[in-house]
Amino acid sequence: MTAFQFSDSLRQQVTSNLSTFAVQMLDQHQLRHAAVAIVITKHPHGPETSVLLTLRPDHMNRHKGQYALPGGRLDEGETPVDAALRELHEELGLCLRPEHVLGALDDYPTRSGFRITPIVVWADGPVILKPDPNEVAQVFHISLSELNSPEIPLLSDVTAGERPVLSAYLPTLGHEVYAPTAAILYQFREVAMCGVATRVADYDQPAFAWK
After folding, report:
1. For the chain, which terminal residue's Cβ has fewer other Cβ atoms within 10 angstroms, N or C?
2. CATH code at 52?
3. CB distance 17 to 187 below 8 Å
4. Does any domain span residue 115?
């Protein structure tokens, strides 16, 4: 069997790992609340499982040209699950419901003033995506085997007293992805895939991601 083959047993494993994970939520009212969706689905080129990653267009005001998980700021009265599913539909045309949610990961505080709640969802595949060109320049399927590389995470050298910057080299892209996206994917690998309660909120982001 292919490692991380898309199957009911994998869904059960991920669900079980997330159900025993003690999520750490931030209570920082000065940070705006956002949510992202980690979409687990079948890879379009084989039996393996993948997660969806987007590239933001160059015309966007914030974080243009950066890799990101589908998501955005919570609207008034929304929960993180509401926001993650809404943004997933708006950005990729993918309509999933609360019953597709498997669990959540830790809130991640960003230098740009947000606390991001990652919501893990399962999409029976292969999925049909209709990216909104105003928000998404390209969509990538990152295999779980790729995320399971021993080369992840990469931590940059920093001066004394500063937090290390976390990144991940992804062969599908041909280069590195940086925190916050890389930190969230790393925690997803550790918690959801491997059942290890790894925390990532203390890893920093590169300067270009601060705005």
Report:
1. N
2. 3.90.79.10
3. no
4. yes
